[in-house]
Amino acid sequence: MDICLPIRDIYVRKILDSGGSPAVEAEVLAGEDIVGTASVAGQKGEQEIEAGIEQMHSQIAEELIGKNLFEQEEIDHLLEKRKEIPQEVSLAVSIATARAAAGKLKIKATWHGTGSFIAVLRAEKN
After folding, report:
1. Is 40 helix (H, G, I), strand (E, B) or coil?
2. Neighbours of 72 (CB within 10 A)
3. In whole angstroms, what is the distance from residue 97 CA to residue 21 CA?
4. pTM here?
5. Which mean pLDDT values do the consecutive 10-residue runs of the chain (126 residues) have?
6. In whole angstroms, how far apart are CA 34 and each of 8, 18, 61?
7. Taking Cα atoms as reference points, which of 14, 9, 8 lies closest to residue 92?
């Protein structure tokens, strides 16, 4: 893709789902006003999720900040190789990245699970 829009920041936090179980919410910021968000239900325990979020903020976010928002495959590969991060955290960041890119292009991104954490998207014109 010829468009280059660097990721400006990444925020990941623990939230609670409707049943009170821990889940993960991510926000990916790019440019001045592009924000993608995603929430993923937790499958791990609360401590594992919190540790994964801390690792995302202290280590992995630094690797992603500055990357081109539209290089989804590269971003997913970087997330996938970090096995110490719970899948929920990686998936939330991946989907939030894809949604930010779709928002910039003014298209709707719909996520379809594939069995792995890498997001598969289908873009539809709004």
Report:
1. strand
2. 18
3. 24
4. 0.86
5. 88 93 95 93 89 94 94 91 91 92 84 49 44
6. 9, 28, 17
7. 14
